[in-house]
Amino acid sequence: MIRIFHHYVSKMGFMLLLMELLILLTVAAAPSVTWLGRRQHDSPYLSALAFALVLVFSMSTLGMYQNNSREDIKHTLLRILPSFALGFGLLSMLIGVAPAIQFGPSALVVFMLGALGVLLIRLAVLASSRSSMLMERVILVGDGATASDCLALAADRAGLHQFEVVGCVPVAGEPSRVAAQALLPADQSLLALARSHGATEIVITVGDRRNGAFPVRQLLECALGGLRITDAATFFEREACQIRIDSLQPSFLIFGGGFDQSFLRAAVKRGFDLTASAAICLVTLPLMLLTAALIVAEDGGPVFYQQQRVGKNGRNFNVLKFRSMGQDAERDGQPRWASTDDPRVTRVGYWIRKLRIDELPQMLNVFKGEMSFVGPRPERGYFVEQLCGEVAYYNVRHTIKPGITGLAQVRYRYGASVNDAVQKLQYDLYYVKNNSLFLDLLILIDTVQVVLFGKGSR
């Protein structure tokens, strides 16, 4: 993995994006295509750049650069076709508003060559990513619950960035939570084990490091021998975009860097919030008017629903949403989690929730400065009080403005319990620690995918 603006991205995925961008630029700007497709006095380069960027954006929205996406010939073909169809639609709209971007009769040829180029690059990268020479091999020091979670993470990894846990080195005094076949022999030093198994990294999963059995001298020997020594918290941050609270030490938050809340970061984020919200308001205005009409037509009730939520620094504000439940959804005044097939949801409400249309009025909260476009989702004060008492570090998410969308929303299903809140908090902590404009843009792209496929809605 490499780090770009504090965010971890797959080296193989980043190389793949650059190669596909290059091949799409080459195909669109090739002299033969220019001669076939455009008038001789038109410059092909602006059109080629628009073609490449739009198609890379389309492939991104369908998850073709995500670490957890399945990569094989079948899935690649199934995603290339809709990606290029989406790209064609976006380019058609772009041509309508930017006359300088033009494609002639050979546009179909350009798309076919581009799709073929992407397919060939994907097959080559897929073959190389599965090579044992490029597979990262890891040894875990410890065989407890955290080690078990690391093994599960490695087993679930399906994307371009894969790693293999060759085994666990047990440490006396720690209850074992891994299978016996995953344990490595204790009669060899860590450095000897790493070299015999071709490991390049050692991950420390032991919770109690004051135990006399903790192999400090062997770890120093490994570090001097050129191996990477990584803490479990950093490992999960890098590989899962999570800060795991079950293995989190306060020192990691204090000395781990990040948490940028400088004036420059605040100004850039505010500019992004206003630009993104204004653009989406303009694009979705007809849809919002139609939604308002349907809500009124169904039961004659109010279009909007206001609910008090907890914002930055614990300040309360009223979040604005399209009403998706009946007018007496909480007649007893008792707040409750939303549930699957919630009977309180109206027929119109079901669809606007599924398509996330009910969130659109929150652009007004962004304009007022109460919310950001990207950030942790704001919760009701009743649940915040409950979760702060039960979940460690929950209040950290209130150090920045809440958002309409966020990392937890695009990586995890809809939260409807304390356990779900814990899982989402781990993504929120990662965002609070590593937030940047780059990460905001990636989350915005992933949000498009979530809306298109209705992921995580209730």
Automatic annotation (TrEMBL):
Q: Where is the Bacterial sugar transferase domain?
A: 269-452
Listed GO molecular functions?
Answer: phosphotransferase activity, for other substituted phosphate groups
Domain of life, per the record?
Bacteria
GO CC terms in record: membrane
Where is it mainly found?
Answer: membrane
| TM helices/strands, residue ranges | 45-65, 77-101, 107-127, 274-297
Q: Where in the cell is it found?
A: Membrane
Q: Does the keyword ATP-binding apply?
A: no
Its membrane topology is listed as: Multi-pass membrane protein
- Write out the entry's keywords from A to Z: Membrane, Transferase, Transmembrane, Transmembrane helix
Question: Which family is this sequence assigned to?
Answer: Belongs to the bacterial sugar transferase family.
Q: Which NCBIfam families match?
A: EPS_sugtrans, EpsB_2
For this entry, the protein name equals TIGR03013 family PEP-CTERM/XrtA system glycosyltransferase
Q: What species is given as this protein's source?
A: Rugamonas apoptosis
* Taxonomy of the source species: Bacteria, Pseudomonadati, Pseudomonadota, Betaproteobacteria, Burkholderiales
